[in-house]
Amino acid sequence: MRLNETALQREKLQEQQQSLEQLNRIKEGVQLLLDALERNMERHQECTPAEALMLEHQLADTSKVLRDVLDLERHPHQPSIDWIPKLNRIEETLSKYAEINQHQSTDIELDALVNLDRLFQSIKPAEEA
Question: Is residue 11 a part of any domain in this protein?
Answer without folding.
Answer: no
